[in-house]
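Bug: token stream looks shifted between consecutive jobs. Job 1:
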Amino acid sequence: MLIAYASQSGFAAELADEAVQALGSAGAQATLLALDQIDKRLLESFSSALFIVSTCGEGDAPDNAARFADTLMRETARDETAELPLDLRYGLLALGDRSYNHYCGFGRRLDAWLESRGARRIFPRIEVDRANTEALRAWRHQLAAFVGIAELDALQLPATRPWRIRRSTLLNPGSVGAAVHHVELEALADDASAEAPNWEAGDLLQLYPADGDAYPRDYSIASLPEDGAVHLLVRRVIGADSKPGVMSSRLTAPDAVGTMVRGRIRSHQNFRIGDNSSRPLLLIGNGTGLAGLLAHLRQRARNGDGRNWLVFGERNAACDDFHGSELDDLQGRDLLARCDRVFSRDLRAREYVQDRLLRAADTVREWVSGGAAIYVCGNAVGMGPAVDEALRTILGAETIAQLALEGRYRRDIY
């Protein structure tokens, strides 16, 4: 059978791996593929499938499912004569976040599309709001029943470990925006995890609240293991109900230093350097998204590779120039070929990172034709779609699709 996943931050991919393990424990084999690796002919070769898919931003497909959505789903939706095999049985797990307007938008769209092509559900679609434990338990129960084993209690995600906050420094005093802190956490050993944690540039730290809040929070890691601690950029969140964010308020509190939290490193394959280590890098982001880009810049600096162009956006240079002295130092040492810091409120006509890219369109095309890979980190609502649209305007939709297939267009948007 087929296990197909669409994952932006890596969680859907982890759950897909778990499903493969479950099948293996029952003596069955499965083919594990990202949606973009599947075409109509391949899909027709399976009689049963499990789809584990997240939604990116406001209802969009994750990057490793964009081609599947833009070609197979869109084309067959237009062509009423196109059919999936009527004997395809499937189950679908949709991952989402209710704070977005189009909750589980891509999962719901995929489910409707499969049904419209004649595929039949093994069980009703299961939706998960931000890793909600009850919904995941329902998914695991259905998965266990499907493969014919008792339960999946033995198949859990990797164990968490204690982390101690050793530093929390306000980076933007006087800013018109919410407070942003540079936070450092050191890993401690416990019975579940004695070895020192390891990670790569692009990976995430997933932290779990201790107050009964059900879902964990993911943060882009700005540091490397050689730095001896995980470095984060954390913006203090105030919800629509005026309540402070559970985890962000803990990490940025005046007495945060010494506080203990539990968490784990999450590998984020979509945002790792991968096969792009020998390429120039165009790094684009805003706000706390700088963290995920800093990790790559720091790794490149250690390797002595200065073929890097950073386009970063915030509000005011006087308050919001996060890690500005470090970026200046990298430029001074020829480890950052170009650095565009775009401060929207310092200009009479506001400019954002997407606007700067459009103004530098010829240079963007030169970098990409010269083999550059593009990494984008920041907001999935606002910056992420706007940058994607700007890049499509500059390079063309077909080029963007090809870059994504080659792993040269990678996004960590949240």
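Job 2, same session, no restart:
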Amino acid sequence: MDPRTPCLIGIAQRTIREQPGPEPLDLWESVAREAAGDARLPVERLDSIQLVWTDSWYYDSPVGRLAERLGAAPRHQVYSKVGGTAPQLLIGTAAAAIAAGELDSALVAGAEALATRRAYRKAGEHAPWSHPADPKPPYGWERPPHPSALAHGLFLPVHTYPIMETARRAAAGTTIEEEMRERARIMAPMTEVAAANPYAWRRAARTPGELAGGRFVGWPYTTDTVAVLEVDQAAAVILASSRLADRLGVPPEQRVYLRGWAYAEDTWEVATRPALGASPAIARAAEAAFERAGLGLDDMNALDLYSCFAIALRQACDAIGLDPLDPRGLTVTGGLPYAGGPASDYVLHSTATMAGLLRAQSGHGLVSGVGMHLTKHTYAVWSSEPGGRLGDVAPVHVAKEVPLVASYEGVGVVAGYTVAHGRGGEAEKGFLVVDVPGGRAYAVVEERALLVEAEGRELVGEEVRVSSDGKLNVAVW
């Protein structure tokens, strides 16, 4: 084996349930030291420190402050942008640099303390955390939402993902009630995995019947079946060359190999997606990852599919030909609704958990990531055995866009929709993606009677009348 072959040799995870808890910098330091101890690597010898963007706090120099805490002077430092694919992009580029002989070791870590932030807010206090950025930097978008999405208030995942769910539901010929029951059946086994995971945020097994209820957030999704973001969690992995692993005395059974991975993109705007309920980018990313790994879906001993919302799971299963009730399960952690969805960090937790599983029982595992509005996709094949070829950050698929019509008046056909609900459970506003001449348009529904009707019957494929003030499109029927 090439001495530069990269391997994962250190893992760490933390979940803090007592609030207020530590700030993200404390969590970064904790998991970095634990992962380094697991890897037998002195933290001051790290060649690279790479951090996933944290939503909890704006530090003046995130990587620099952590390096200072660790007493390290890494020659390579990265702080990511926002997105659930960020951990795999950092891991993949670190592995490539190690394979090229440019690095010998790399730490990739992430931390969120959003539950603690919430505790401070409820107490009417500001988080007393260190090294705030001044001035506060822009949010870490790779690109901001489209002006039309902003004008309609349609930029939160809890609203965009249900739109794609309703489009898939209609295309499949599934009723509203059938979709809800099926979702509960798919997600109930995930709660059992979370119940056995000591790092999971919600450690209670739930039945399909229990998951079928709950308060709506972005209809038809309920609080019990979407990612839980306000968590205090951190994770880290350490990658190294096989040569360094040998020098450190890391036993072969502790090394886990990235056999192959790939990145792909659907359109950035939901409305511009050719088919709202399907993802050719997922199919291509998975195909490329398996091809690079020299393995297939049937070779996988364990799976972790990104599960922020049910549509992410369903599109993945559709794309790779996986039964959602496959006996291997869809997650090794419990998934984002139950194990926890710490903003951009989740894939660090799924990767660390998968690595621990492969150490214990050997074999191969698939870990996927999703970024933004089901826009960005990563698929990675991990193994207890070296082999394959890594891949890189170049997208293996970039979707072609349907034109977005910012302002529209006339008749259109509903392509997908949702109803936003407030914290008290009341329906507040409808969001539609509408097929119109020349492309698609966003529209809102404001009449309360129409919101009630929208939740009681299938609107996809129905005609609506759209009026506009030049920025905001309003639909009625």
